Amino acid sequence: MTKALILDDERDICELIEMSLMGQDITCTSVYTIRAAIKALKEERYNFIISDIRLPDGDGLDFLSHVQKHYPGTPVCMITAHGNMDTAITALKRGAFDFINKPFDLKQLRSVCKAALKEGHSQSGGASASPAAGGGKKTAPQGGGRSSNKYELIGDAEVMQKVRAMISKVARSQAPVFIHGESGTGKEVAARSIHHQSNRAEGAFVAVNCGAIPENLVESEFFGYKKGAFTGANQDQDGLFVAANGGTLFLDEVADLPLSMQVKLLRAIQERAVRPIGGDREEAVDVRIISATHHDLARRVAENKFREDLYYRLNVIGLTMPPLRERDGDIAILAAHLLAKLARDAGYPLAHLSPAALAKLEAYPFPGNVRELENILERALTFVEGDTIEADG
Known about the structure:
This protein is of the alpha/beta class. The protein has helices spanning 11-22, 34-43, 60-70, 85-93, 106-124, 158-170, 187-197, 218-223, 240-243, 259-271, 297-302, 308-314, 330-346, 355-362, 369-383; strands spanning 2-7, 26-31, 48-52, 54-55, 58-59, 76-81, 98-102, 177-180, 205-209, 248-252, 273-274, 283-284, 288-293, 317-320, 352-353, 388-389. The strands form five sheets. Strands 2-1-3-6-7 form a five-stranded parallel β-sheet, with helices on both faces.
């Protein structure tokens, strides 16, 4: 039996949630104080928890910390007042699975609860949440530097092990992730890895280069349009948000978005709804946002080139991709992986690097990072004679 614990001092809110989840075969237990919630958790097992932030006997964020300590892996969805995004962001940063705005959009409520239920099952192997044994948290497999997973970040360097561990952790949340790193460091691969380790893996992963869309087309690309909305709109067209509904929208080079679009993007993220150009109503969307750039976005904010409110909304969880020059020992691993991939894709015989060629690569700083390494190896593989790539090849 699927069970949810609801913590809110407004009884009508609890009743509304109970009735909304009844159709999903979820049995709800409602409590009105933190003390009662802690007692309920000791007596019963729950698949997920919905908790208000403002409660008569304490702070819902402190209750969130209690759940994370004593019932690790149990998703907690926080209820926030409409428009209070600062509180919602704080909750996500402190480990909340997601948040729900008051007044409720019932479709959004059910969608969030469905995702939380799926996450609860994935973290507990199908069993309901129960008190922690020994206080240890369950974590997703980290994977090794030579994983065959095509969305795995290859490398054994300590900085890459930390990146993979971070990805496994943030994949369990619904919070927006902001990835920063130099060009060619693998920001999109990291975003795809987050998506494919999350409970949204069966949904779409939609990637868009924000700097590649002409400014006059940005709004229609993101939000879609209705037939007749403008000259040439001969039929309805879904935008990127609708295409990513139920999955992940990856905003690459988000710093390149024009200011006029930034405010519209912020509203869509906050409201979880989009209005197509020419449309007369908003359409609810369930999308996780992952964004990335090689620019210093904080500096862009200081220069008034990027909205501060959008920056904080995107940068709930930050992830930094290290440059290749800081990844000790990874060039040999990456070179072997890339040569095998390139040979397979092009139908070439497999080749390997001579010790001198590897040493030459390891002495090079790679300003273009992994992408530059791949380009160098592709050229070498194209012109190599035999199965060994020499240093002067």
